[in-house]
Protein backbone atom coordinates (compact mmCIF):
# COMPACT_ATOMS: atom_id res chain seq x y z
CA UNK A 1 0.00 0.00 0.00
CA UNK A 2 1.28 3.45 -0.87
CA UNK A 3 2.21 5.88 1.93
CA UNK A 4 -0.16 8.85 1.83
CA UNK A 5 1.31 10.77 4.75
CA UNK A 6 1.56 14.50 4.02
CA UNK A 7 4.79 16.10 5.25
CA UNK A 8 5.85 19.74 5.45
CA UNK A 9 9.09 21.16 6.82
CA UNK A 10 9.03 24.12 9.20
CA UNK A 11 11.77 26.57 8.25
CA UNK A 12 13.27 29.56 10.03
CA UNK A 13 13.74 33.03 8.54
CA UNK A 14 16.98 31.96 6.87
CA UNK A 15 15.29 29.01 5.18
CA UNK A 16 16.93 26.37 7.39
CA UNK A 17 14.70 23.43 8.44
CA UNK A 18 13.71 23.53 12.12
CA UNK A 19 10.78 21.12 12.36
CA UNK A 20 8.15 19.06 10.59
CA UNK A 21 4.36 18.86 10.45
CA UNK A 22 2.62 15.69 9.24
CA UNK A 23 -0.94 14.66 8.44
CA UNK A 24 -1.97 11.04 8.11
CA UNK A 25 -5.11 8.91 8.26
CA UNK A 26 -5.31 6.66 11.31
CA UNK A 27 -8.47 4.70 12.18
CA UNK A 28 -10.48 6.57 9.55
CA UNK A 29 -9.66 10.10 10.76
CA UNK A 30 -7.06 12.68 9.75
CA UNK A 31 -4.51 13.12 12.52
CA UNK A 32 -1.77 15.71 12.81
CA UNK A 33 1.63 15.65 14.42
CA UNK A 34 4.52 18.07 14.69
CA UNK A 35 8.11 18.34 15.83
CA UNK A 36 10.33 21.35 16.36
CA UNK A 37 14.05 21.56 17.08
CA UNK A 38 15.14 23.45 20.18
CA UNK A 39 18.12 25.25 18.66
CA UNK A 40 18.71 27.36 21.79
CA UNK A 41 19.76 24.23 23.67
CA UNK A 42 22.12 23.21 20.86
CA UNK A 43 19.92 20.67 19.07
CA UNK A 44 20.41 20.16 15.35
CA UNK A 45 17.67 19.28 12.89
CA UNK A 46 17.48 15.62 11.86
CA UNK A 47 14.86 14.78 9.25
CA UNK A 48 14.39 11.15 10.34
CA UNK A 49 14.06 12.06 14.01
CA UNK A 50 11.65 14.90 13.18
CA UNK A 51 9.45 12.52 11.17
CA UNK A 52 9.48 9.94 13.96
CA UNK A 53 8.46 12.51 16.60
CA UNK A 54 5.75 14.02 14.40
CA UNK A 55 4.26 10.63 13.51
CA UNK A 56 4.34 9.64 17.18
CA UNK A 57 2.34 12.73 18.09
CA UNK A 58 -0.09 12.00 15.27
CA UNK A 59 -0.63 8.44 16.52
CA UNK A 60 -0.77 9.18 20.25
CA UNK A 61 -2.38 12.60 20.07
CA UNK A 62 -1.42 15.79 21.87
CA UNK A 63 -3.68 17.71 24.19
CA UNK A 64 -5.03 21.25 24.09
CA UNK A 65 -2.50 22.40 26.73
CA UNK A 66 0.51 21.51 24.58
CA UNK A 67 2.63 24.54 23.75
CA UNK A 68 3.22 24.54 20.01
CA UNK A 69 5.82 27.01 18.67
CA UNK A 70 4.30 29.92 16.71
CA UNK A 71 6.21 29.12 13.52
CA UNK A 72 4.93 25.54 13.71
CA UNK A 73 1.33 26.69 14.30
CA UNK A 74 1.39 28.64 11.02
CA UNK A 75 2.45 25.54 9.06
CA UNK A 76 0.03 23.37 11.05
CA UNK A 77 -2.92 25.55 10.07
CA UNK A 78 -1.89 25.33 6.42
CA UNK A 79 -1.55 21.55 6.78
CA UNK A 80 -5.12 21.29 8.12
CA UNK A 81 -6.44 23.02 5.01
CA UNK A 82 -4.19 21.00 2.70
CA UNK A 83 -5.10 17.65 4.27
CA UNK A 84 -8.86 18.25 4.13
CA UNK A 85 -8.51 18.84 0.39
CA UNK A 86 -6.24 15.80 -0.06
CA UNK A 87 -8.18 13.32 2.12
CA UNK A 88 -11.68 13.95 0.82
CA UNK A 89 -14.61 12.86 3.02
CA UNK A 90 -12.37 11.91 5.96
CA UNK A 91 -13.12 13.66 9.29
CA UNK A 92 -10.42 15.66 11.10
CA UNK A 93 -9.38 14.49 14.57
CA UNK A 94 -7.23 16.06 17.26
CA UNK A 95 -7.08 19.70 16.26
CA UNK A 96 -8.13 22.23 18.81
CA UNK A 97 -8.34 25.97 18.21
CA UNK A 98 -4.70 26.38 17.23
Strand order of the largest sheet: 1-2-3
The backbone outline, from C-alpha atoms, is globular
How far is the N terminus from the C terminus? 32 Å
Classify the helix fraction into a percent range: 25-40%
Q: Indicate how many domains the architecture comprises.
A: 1
Radius of gyration: 13 Å
Largest sheet: 3 strands, antiparallel
| Strand residue percentage | 15-25%
- Given the structure, what is the number of helices? 2
- Derived from helix and strand composition plus strand pairing, the structural class reads alpha+beta
Q: Note poorly predicted spans.
A: none
Q: Note the run of SSEs as H and E.
A: EEEHH
Average pLDDT works out at 88
- Beta strand count: 3
What is the structure about, briefly put?
By secondary structure, the chain is of the alpha+beta class. Helices cover 32% and strands 24% of the residues. The chain has two helices and three strands; from the N terminus they run βββαα.
Keywords:
globular, alpha+beta, 24% strand, 98 residues, three-stranded antiparallel sheet
Q: What does this entry look like structurally?
A:
This protein is an alpha+beta fold and 98 residues long. It has one domain. The chain has 2 helices and 3 strands. Strands 1-2-3 form a 3-stranded antiparallel sheet. It is globular, with a radius of gyration of 13 Å.
Amino acid sequence: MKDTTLKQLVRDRKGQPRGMVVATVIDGTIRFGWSHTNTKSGDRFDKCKALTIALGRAENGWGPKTNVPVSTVKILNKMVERSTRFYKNVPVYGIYAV
